[in-house]
């Protein structure tokens, strides 16, 4: 059984309003890459993944005139993918949906959002005192997590939560003061989202559910200097590093245990002013104890760090062309 999470940069730009691939020489949202080039690269990557289910982050937009699920199903048909049925939860207004693309012959999946007296549904709001002023702020997800009840052909019942947490980048800031203010504000919001998510995680763990939390957290242990102001990262919060029943991700564990050693990375961005690459770990697949007993194997499909990806030249180039993130997979016994 293989699960994957994959953040695809500007996936929405590859489709028209009917969800049909442009697949032409027009520019994609990626710098110096055409829509045809990105489409072909993504097709090769998804074929190589051959996953039973892929949590697509930044999936094509859905609203009154566009259907992101239909677009992904057209994409799957174009490249003859096993994972060919799309499941979307609460749509958002960011043009970046969270959609599960899965193989209906091997898994059944349904959108199953949960809610309790203590923990609201992810399309609602959550009150949390972020700055210790006894006046709770109202927290909302711009991209509500996708909660999935998934049953495998082998009889395993899983809970999946697909996540795209708040970006901490100070977009629009120009002065040093604006950068600092926005960075701190965005980190507060990101941490609040992760606290909300951890509450939901604890409810599942309390019931003994087999749980997988996967996606792009825009965060990680030791990722930036602003973490020192709050004492922990959002990833550590969701993992349960402060106590309670933990989730596990080996890449997060490696970073947490070796702050100085070389760390695994899942994304690669050009940064100003000279366009050099910044490599960071942003994408995770966190699992509960029951899945740790199912002989799990994690892999970041990094074109340079993973020997199999590096040794396959077409796949290596496709990974670099397709997105600024790389897929993460989890293989386990069903």
Tell me what the structure shows.
The protein has 334 residues and is an alpha+beta fold. It has a single domain, classed as Deoxyribonuclease I, Chain A (4-Layer Sandwich), CATH 3.60.10.10. The protein contains 9 helices and 15 strands. It has a 6-stranded mixed β-sheet, covered by helices on one side. A 5-stranded mixed β-sheet has the order 5-8-9-10-13. It is globular.
List the helices and strands and how they pair.
Blueprint: E1 2-7, H1 35-49, E2 53-59, H2 68-78, E3 85-88, E4 97-102, E5 107-111, E6 125-128, E7 137-140, E8 146-152, E9 157-164, H3 176-206, E10 211-216, H4 227-230, H5 234-239, H6 250-257, E11 267-271, E12 276-280, E13 283-287, H7 289-292, E14 297-300, H8 307-311, H9 313-322, E15 328-331
Parallel strand pairs: 1-2, 9-10
Antiparallel strand pairs: 1-15, 2-4, 3-4, 5-8, 6-7, 8-9, 10-13, 11-12, 14-15
Features:
globular, 9 helices, 5-stranded mixed beta sheet, 334 residues, Deoxyribonuclease I, Chain A, 24% strand, alpha+beta, single chain
- Kindly, what is the distance between the CA atoms of the first and last residues, rounded to a whole number of angstroms? 6 Å
Q: Which CATH architecture is right?
A: 4-Layer Sandwich
Q: Estimate the helix proportion, in percent.
A: 25-40%
CATH top level class name: Alpha Beta
Structural domain tally: 1
Number of strands: 15
Secondary-structure-derived class: alpha+beta
State the helix count.
Answer: 9
Instruction: State mean pLDDT (0 to 100 scale).
Output: 91
CATH superfamily: Endonuclease/exonuclease/phosphatase
Oligomer: single chain
Widest sheet: strand order?
3-4-2-1-15-14
Low-confidence stretches: none
What letter string, H or E per element, gives the SSE order?
Answer: EHEHEEEEEEEHEHHHEEEHEHHE
